Known about the structure:
The chain is of the alpha/beta class and 263 residues long. The protein has 9 helices and 7 strands; from the N terminus they run αααβαβαββαβααβαβ. The protein has helices spanning 11-33, 41-71, 79-88, 108-116, 137-146, 186-194, 211-214, 217-226, 245-250; strands spanning 98-102, 121-126, 152-156, 169-175, 197-208, 231-236, 256-262. Helix 1 packs antiparallel against helix 2 (41-71) and helix 3 packs across helix 4. It is elongated. 37% of the residues are buried.
Amino acid sequence: MKADYKNWMPKGMVLTTACGAGIALILYIVFGIAPVLQEGTLKTVLGIVFLVLTIVLALVALWMFLMYRAFSYNGKRQMSKQIIEGIAAYVKIPDGGKGLDVGCGSGALAIACAKRNPKAEMVGIDRWGKEYASFSKQLCENNSKAEGVSNTSFMQGDACKLPFENETFDAVTSNYVYHNIPSRDRQGILLETLRTLKKGGTFAIHDIMSKARYGDMQAFAKKLKDMGYSEVQLIDTTNGKFMTRFEALWMELSGSTLLVGKK
Length: 263
């Protein structure tokens, strides 16, 4: 049995967009080229509309395919695996301790942290929404078994209102989650995650922390220090750490930042 961490760019989304491009092309041929309609304004307008739609959908499908190939765990680039292992390297949990991964998806980060901390427990939480229908609690559990990991557990929940008491965990992690949540206060969601961290605990949270999505993260890092967090770092992961500048640009991941530290 082999772990299946799926892909952050769902295959169904790629295929659906590609099919859309194909349908638009057929409609362009039927209404813009074939003698179905008489020559005239209507035929010209429909031809232009369907041609533009074909080009746009084809370009989007190509971009999605390249994203899918870059993030594939089984492909050559394996960016997902590099990011997961890179985040997990910051997570240190004492024996008998417990860590939390918010937005665990297919369980990849929770499992990677569990492997590095075999005498601790990792809890993964996710809402597993319909837009990522291939991700589920069962998938996470299957992947744990496939990896030979027994110190994980998974549950459904909301990242905006975690069902845990303050200072429950010795470590908290997350990867590319909060930018997907419609919110004007993603710093507030970060604080909700950090609320569950014990004093002395570590955190490693990776996301597209651009100013447009998160506001001033340098000010947020200073705020955490003022709140008593002993270590806070904002690490740019688009400078060769997890990806190149060019990759971050064409994949629209510019602003990807790893927030790490200790309470």
